[in-house]
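Solute carrier family 25 member 1
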Amino acid sequence: IQLPLKPRSVAVGFVLVCLLHNISTSLFCAGGIAGGIEICITFPTEYVKTQLQLDERANPPRYRSIGHCVRLTIQEHGVKGLYRGLSSLLYGSIPKSAVRFGMFEFLSNIAKDSNGKLDNKRSLLCGLGAGVAEAVLVVCPMETIKVKFIHDQSSSNPKYKGFFQGVREIVREQGLRGTYQGLTATVLKQGSNQAIRFFVMTSLRNWYLGDNPHKKMNPFITATFGATAGAASVFGNTPLDVIKTRMQGLEAHKYKNTLDCAYQILKKEGLLAFYKGTVPRLGRVCLDVAIVFVIYEEVVNVLNKVWKTA
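Tokens:
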């Protein structure tokens, strides 16, 4: 797929989303801090998930299990090896969070009924829009770099020494399009991700609040609903995540397109291959979504109080 946006267009689009949503500096910082903490806590599970998804049966597979992947990585690279590719996610955490929640709230403000309530079906569409926006603006280049870094570590002669050197190498060899590999799969994954998560979260919130929109939701309830939404997205779209990972790996040239990638996985590795990395992804995503929703809700509550007293 051709890269649809130039860097300047991406930056302008991102700024427009932020302006339309009137996101404050505090919200940017809170989103970045929440995303950074969550990633640092859960990234080893993301690393293991990605390695298992890249490990093709036809090679034969290098890792026998999750535990074997962890042990082998630590033996060869130390504990820090489990954090390979972390920097690409850290650098993208702030804009990703801002675009996701900013676009969702922007769309939900349009979709709400006359009583100011967002129903479950409309939240699905708003989540889909938020996921597509974050995929194009932030997630695709961020994920492509992360996958390449993790895949590079498994090669006999790693060539990426650090984040900026690695990005320079990718752009030098493949152009800017090299950071947008697997865009179709990423859009499908992120769109379905956020559609499922916001749909489940909105459904649970509407059920909990009932006829009292002013009923308070404590952080524990928000975290529980967030973890449930995260789990639903994992079981709902892990096959797309596997395809996306393969399309962004160092051997993506083997696939003609996203459909060809899916066909080859099914033909050579079977249906279960589409659920590689489900367990580590489940642990990371549940914690990820729970933390992000709790932080976001608490920051919104604080900002609302500040605006009322200002």
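Confidence is low (pLDDT under 50) at residues 1-24.
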